[in-house]
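Table S5 (text form). Sequence records supplied for joint modeling of the two-component complex.
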Amino acid sequence: MEKYAIYVPRLVKKEEKFAPGHRACIGCGEALAIRQAFKALDNNVIVVNATGCAEIFSSQLPLSSWELPWIHTLFENAAAVASGIEAAYKAMRRKGIKVPENTKVVAIAGDGGTSDIGLQALSGALERGHDFTYICFDNEAYMNTGIQRSSATPFGAWTTTSPTGKKSIGQFSWKKNMPEIVAAHNIPYVATATHGYPFDLMAKVAKAVATNGPAYVHILSACPTGWRSATDTINRQVRMAVQTGMFPLYEVENGVYRMSLDIPKLRPVADYLKTQGRFRHLSDDAIARIQKRVEVEYQKLLEKAGHGSQKTTQRKSRAGAGKISA
Amino acid sequence: MVTRVGMEVSLALADAVKLTQPDVIAAYPITPQTHIVEHLAELVADGELDAEYMPVESEHSAMSACVGASAAGARTFTATSSQGLALMVEVVYVAAPMRLPIVMAVANRALSAPLSIWPDHSDMMSVRDTGWIQIITENGQQAVDNTICSFRIAEDQRVLLPVMVHLDGFTLTHVVEPIIFPEQDAVNRFLPRNRFPLPLNPDRPVAMGEFAPPFIFTETKWAQEVNLRNSKKVITQVWEEFDKAFGRKYTPVEKYHSDGAKVLIMTMGSSGETASVAIDELRDEGMNVGQIRLRLWRPFPFEELREAVKDADVLIVMDRALSFGGPGGPFASEVKAALYNQSKKPKIVSYVISLGGRDVTVSGFKDIIRKGVEIAEKGSKNEYEIYGVKE
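The corresponding structure-token record, covering 717 residues in total, follows.
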């Protein structure tokens, strides 16, 4: 990554679609990921924002951080609203009503708005095949309301509604595998990304939006406030999530799985867990359980991507804009 | 050349929607709204209507899709009923303050539990504070005409509010009635293309639906209220223009033999026509009785109502919904509120009737009117009467 430092300003657009001055917490990974995602796009985008952190910190009457047309209505319906906009443009264009050509619709939501309350609306919109992109900015809990657990909260994590205690390890269930649920809809493009790998993120968002039909990008976004972690290490944290296999980066393009990153050997999950206060209470046994689960899940993913055992495989990074080095 | 055709009202309403040339229809099936959306899906499938028909996965998404489509500048329609309206109510609340001119037909039906697919007004009463314009129809012709008028009202730049067209489930949606269909050209002249002022458009970015802190929230709500109140003038104008173009006139409060009548029965919806027959028969028997039919539920036509009842001694108000633990039916409540501060006011008797589709016949209405007059004279310890209940 270091070698890119001097080139970065030349590799990304200078223009900001998500303007500074918003009210995100210090070290907000979601704000960074949103900035990256929309830098990857042109101005022909309509943004549909579900209720959540991003909506709150980017909007307050009469101000806005958005340089794009933007609509927020409710928590669980971003995909449905986006599908309505897409249908409207389709109908109006067909009927000869003047609307801008090549307009793209991008819905953004948090992990709660996606994998919990918004799951039905998302599934419906994917199944109907609307030409839109849905981006889930996953910070692994309801951070906007004060760090309550969602179905995307990882096993063992402390949150205010999965507190640790004599009879509680914290989050009692395993993180819902949202990208796989979306992939099961057989849509043309599904990807995972994180702001710790910005070029990979931007390439995937650009590809998703260019896709004809529904596309989904699941972006791990660090939340120092909710993760109980240092605000100046967010990129290191999410990169560690990738390198430990807790949050693998991959794409599913027309049903074909492809790993985005060459990881000859996964780092131990403890390297990730120990940087965050939300996992501080975990015993060695609990960490070993998580380690085992991560290895099993990672192996399943590798097999889907046509790779054998990760321990024996030495792969080259794929070529193209998504090229990244660990 | 206008022709009358015998037709199921749901199909007629769908054909009226077709005449308005909507761009997007998003709907989820629920009895007794189904025939409306089925026919629209057919019209789109046959290429007779150029629109996107979105068969969404819930009413919540139906209204959400309508919100998105309308915000993008499309002419947008949906239809629902009962539980469907209840499920979408969160989004229904959003449409009005965002000033989105969506039109929705509501096939009025009771709310669970117990489950009932039959008509009453408990669904429409549950959304009376959502800021939508609510128009009530009594027969198929009114449903057709007001569907067309609703788009004109909703999209008027002075209004820009969503409109519900209410028609009672089954007793209206599933009956065959003679309908006069306006010609397409005449509808095109009456209803120009939707020109939503600031749609979601990359050429002119706008932010819609931002959150409002306390320093500005009250102002947004007051603006919404002033806007809805002022819409009544436009609604009346649109009805007058509809009369000029098509020869059928609607008013917020409609009168039937009410001038000079000392006893007035007040109705909403399809049972009003049955009540009218009872009025005819009672008048033949020498009783000085008339009828007021409410056409506009929101914005509530206070002035028109006061004017219409000013000579009456007794008002018997019919409600097809129950406000549990409250003062009686919602309609009677509103009528009482409208008249309380008047120096001269009639006695008001509140009747809750026809819940979950139970019929009240002509003789039933005659019975109610006679009993209502008796209650007005002698008084009652009840806040309201519930007609025909087996206790």
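Note: Chain A touches chain B through 51 residues (CB under 8 Å).
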